[in-house]
Design brief:
Elements lengths: L2 E3 L1 H8 L3 H8 L3 H8 L8 H11 L3 H4 E3 L5
Antiparallel strand pairs: 1-2
Helix pairs in contact: 2-3
Length: about 70
């Protein structure tokens, strides 16, 4: 899939654990793991908003597009 999820990168930059982020966002650690591994089929804007708020970042810091033609 050409959409890359960079939650791990932002977690490392903010020195925050996955469990702490899941708690702040209000999702289960299992659902956060699905998102982090790129297995999620969709992300709600409310969840993306909460992640950006918790990590003090922009949606573009979390989501990245890479062409499959490379």
């Amino acid at each position: 899939m050409p959409i890359i999820i960079n939650v791990d990168v932002m977690l490392a930059r903010r020195k925050m654990s996955s469990g702490e982020l899941a708690s702040k966002v209000g999702i289960t650690p299992a659902n956060l793991s699905i998102l982090k591994t790129g297995k999620a089929k969709a992300v709600r804007f409310s969840t993306l908003n909460a992640i950006c708020q918790a990590l003090d970042c922009q949606p573009g810091d979390i989501l990245e597009y890479k062409s499959e033609q490379q």
